[in-house]
Amino acid sequence: MKNDLQKVAELILNSESMIAFTGAGVSVESGIPPFRGPNGLWSKYDPKCLDLDFFYAEPEESWKAIKSIFYDFFGKAKYNKAHEILARWEERGVLKSIVTQNIDNLHQEAGSKSVFEFHGNSQKLICAACEQVFLPKEIDLEKLPPLCPNDKSILKPDFVFFGEGIPENAYRKSLLAAQSADVVLIIGTTGEVYPAASIPIEAKRNGATIVEINTEKSNYTDSITDFFLQGKAGEILGELEEIIIVKV
Ligand code: APR
User: What digits encode the pLDDT tens for the residues 5-46?
Assistant: First the structure.
């Protein structure tokens, strides 16, 4: 793997339009469990809580799971070394943007500016009727489902549910970034969920070199990945940064 790290460091240094495509694995070192795998969230909670039809049919049951997963747990997580390094590389002009599937806001909290949130963000609650937006801290989440202070309609987290469309702005910017990328760092994702999972494939189709950082193989590893750096995101990115600093 050592010489792969050297080759990838060279690739990163010589890239002109590198992007990162991140999934839940980049936040695992912040204490947020992934969705899939041995202790994944979907082994503890029924994914139907994120199904749009179920949410509106059974809002209280859906909100109980959503609160436990995304507000009790995520709320306390802090960004980790992987988020920090990606933010530093953006600041140095090495990384152009991040397409993330995550809704935990940790890339932004680590300082990343150009972040396209394919699945929205958990930091906003929106009224199903009047569409006014609230911050979670403005709403009492002890009473479920939370109701809009204006018209008592149900508040919905402003992230993408299964069966819901991708925010057009994020989709468009992610696709454009993929089409012009010369290197894509795929970090911490199974590549299970479409259309998000098509972003690295689109980049590959347009000639990008694919570097994958993951503790396990994913749907990309034996198909589009050119360099597979097996390990934890924070550790691998840390090793790459050490080599890059020496070379600049
Ligand atoms: N460093 C790098 N990768 C890791 C780490 C780590 N420390 N820990 C786990 N991983 C990897 C796992 O091997 C797995 O491939 O992160 C990936 C997590 O996969 P998923 O839980 O499927 O998360 P993700 O791919 O982001 O899911 C996509 O599914 O449920 C929906 O909307 C949800 O955005 C999510 C989408």
Answer: 999 999 999 999 999 999 999 999 999 999 999 889 999 999
How many other CB atoms are found less than 10 A from the CB of residue 151?
11
3-state secondary structure of 131: coil
Spacing, Cα 22 to ligand 1 middle (Å): 8
pTM of the shown model? 0.96
What CATH code is assigned to 34-76+120-159? 3.30.1600.10
Sign (positive/negative) of CA torsion 84, 85, 86, 92?
A: positive
Question: Residue 153 C-alpha to ligand 1 middle, in angstroms?
Answer: 33
Looking at the annotation, which residues are catalytic? Answer: 119
Residue nearest to atom 9 of ligand 1 (CA): 25
Measured in angstroms, how far is the CA atom of residue 246 from the centroid of ligand 1?
31
Segments making up each domain of the chain, as ranges: 1-32+79-119+166-248, 34-76+120-159
> What would the CATH number be for the domain defined by 1-32+79-119+166-248?
3.40.50.1220
